Amino acid sequence: MAKSIILIGPPGSGKSTIGRALSRKLNISFTDTDDLIEVRAGSSISQIFIDRGEPWFRELEEAVLKEELARLDGVLSLGGGAPLSETAQELLRRIDDAVVYLDVSLATAAPRVGFNRDRPLLLNNPRGAWQELMDKRRPIYEALATYVVKVDERAPKDIVAEIVRLTQ
């Protein structure tokens, strides 16, 4: 039985929604690294990209990930790019907790993401950019995942039930 559950996946896969529902179902805490980054930086992620740039954001994201994994107890949702650096991948490989990759198609992600708000990497040609991100990220998500859960055309309660079944 996994003590904690880490959710990874691209923008629009439902990490925050599923994470909150999962934490309620299991009566454990929920933390979203993107929320922590916004609090620490005092601005939205899209504003951080504008004001400080992606490298600064990724450095902060890696520091937050390291801190959260050190005290992991509950459900942790990672930003879509959080598991991409070699350091982050090594940190995730070392933990004993379940890493669940929420696998989503572009068709399902598009309406969720909206492709026009707070997604700095998707501003120009959002569908093409999302697909390009996924071409790079999918192998990393799959390599890190303890479990892969398909989320297309499924209700959050069904996704949560599958994650509970897999991890408990």
Can you walk me through this structure?
This protein is of the alpha/beta class. The chain has a single domain, classed as 3-Layer(aba) Sandwich (Rossmann fold). The protein is built from 8 helices and 5 strands. Strands 2-3-1-4-5 form a 5-stranded parallel sheet, with helices on both faces. α1 crosses α8 and α4 runs parallel beside α5. It is globular, with a radius of gyration of 15 Å. 35% of the residues are buried.
Write the layout of secondary structure elements.
Elements: E1 5-8, H1 15-26, E2 30-32, H2 33-41, H3 45-51, H4 54-70, E3 75-77, H5 86-94, E4 98-103, H6 106-113, H7 126-144, E5 147-150, H8 156-167
Parallel strand pairs: 1-3, 1-4, 2-3, 4-5
Helix pairs in contact: 1-8, 2-4, 4-5
List keywords for this structure.
Rossmann fold, 8 helices, 168 residues, five-stranded parallel β-sheet, alpha/beta, 5 strands
Helical content band = 55-70%
Give the tally of structural domains: 1
Mean of all residue-level pLDDT scores = 89
- Reading off the top of the CATH hierarchy, the class is best stated as Alpha Beta
The N- to C-terminal Cα distance equals 4 Å
The major sheet is characterized as: 5 strands, parallel
Q: Number of helix segments?
A: 8
Proportion in β-strands: 5-15%
Query: Secondary-structure element order, as H and E?
Result: EHEHHHEHEHHEH
Please give the CATH architecture: 3-Layer(aba) Sandwich
CATH superfamily: P-loop containing nucleotide triphosphate hydrolases
**What order do the strands of the largest sheet run in, or round the barrel if closed?**
2-3-1-4-5
List unreliable stretches of 5+ residues.
Answer: none
Rg (CA only):
15 Å
The name CATH uses for the topology is Rossmann fold
Shape: globular
- Number of β-strand runs: 5
Main structural class:
alpha/beta
